[in-house]
Amino acid sequence: MVHLFYTFYFKRHLQKMGCFQALGFADLTIARVYLYLTIALSASAALTGMLFGWMLSGVLLDAYTASYGISDVKKGIQTSSFFIGVIPVILAAGLTTAHSCKVFFKKEPALLIKGTLRRKESALLVRIADRISAAMPESKRFPVRIVFRKPATLVLSVIAVGVSVTLFIMSISLYLSSNKVYESQTNGRHYSFDVKLNALGQDVGAYAGSVLYLETSASVMTSNRKEPVRQQLIGLTDGGDLLTLYNQNGQRLSKPQGNEIWIGPGLEEIYGVKKGDTVTLNVSNKRYSAIVSDVAANAESNRIYMNKEQLAEWMNVEKSSYNGLLSNDVHSVPSGRVITEEERLFALDKAAVSNRMSAVINQLLGCIAGGILIYLVLLLNFQDSTREILILSLLGYRPKEINNMLIGVFGPIIAAAFLLMLYPGIVICRQIQRSLSMQTGDYMPFQTNVFIVVAIFVVMQIIYAVAKAAFTAKIRTIIRKETIHAHMQ
Fold this sequence. Notes:
This protein has helices at about 1-10, 15-20, 25-70, 80-85, 85-100, 110-115, 125-135, 140-150, 150-185, 265-270, 310-315, 340-385, 385-395, 400-405, 410-440, 450-480, and strands at about 195-200, 210-220, 225-235, 260-265, 280-285, 285-295, 305, 320-325, 335-340. It is an alpha+beta fold.
């Protein structure tokens, strides 16, 4: 924004720069004034943004407190926030201003005052623009020729659309991923209580109708990752109707045999472990080889399932040992920590809150960033087309028709930019969610579909239509206030 502002400002006020030079002011002195002004304004804006961020952060803090049950948290501003959020903004604005001032450095004051100092157009760009416009319908040749003579506008259009598309895809994917995880971890579970025993118990057939399991911590070593992945290893008996695990084709999985294991989709998508792979499990400080026989689509987060007898052998305990059970009757089970169905669902819902809140924030950022960036792209093209606007007005074109000619040409460009940036946006979002899953330990599957892509395209077109409509009034103002003679030099 700073670059766009000063590019347009100096283009309109080069004569004033020449007057300042003629009065004896050095180029550095003139540039220093603009630099100090930019630093002061950017510092004020950054500090104001930090203040408002601190004031409004209470909304998110209250939501996280209610979701995660945290009671000893209070808002504040760390010193690192100042160096991350304020200093870089000031430096970027200052450097951009200094770079923009080079337009009048070492230029003759007489040429600046006379207004004859013009940037020469690239002959190659002119030829390319002429060839592309020649292939267009006659009514589109003039606006296409103008646009393609300004490659910076095309590049900014692609960047603006790419940023907006990425934010929208990320927001919707975060929201859908939370729903997918919630649904997968409630599917196939028909028990009311999950009991974690305080000590190992022995199966003597006293808990008919319950599912006994053996659980221990384990580390997974994979061929494509140096660091081990922490997981909980669950040794299962026949789950019966209380716990049913399905593969990714919706088929029910039978009890694993021997050293076979079932992994969750998180290990497959995030760490690249596939069905049929051989992995190394570190259990009780000993390493064992296991074969991934299938992927349990509705596996609990960070869980690996295997045969209970095999796990008991690895843990060097009796094969009839267990330290947890799933049941619908809590009165007949031994002492331990009881997790009710309501508590389990509440925990899943809390885990989904963060993704949903992030999704809402990204949706807002997508709309705001998309609107601002697309408007700035159109504004950049609009500011450089004052001469063309006045000529078209003299030829009898109305402001709305001029708008359709100069701004309307960006409709197909934005649509093409959307198609161009769609795949990179999906790849970026997928990698971001994968990285977040690895850092936080929470499985966040990437989600998108054709309907989402169409919806994002429609939103982008709406943003463009609103921005385009705003320029009709600007064209009327230029026609009313500007004269063609000032732009024919």
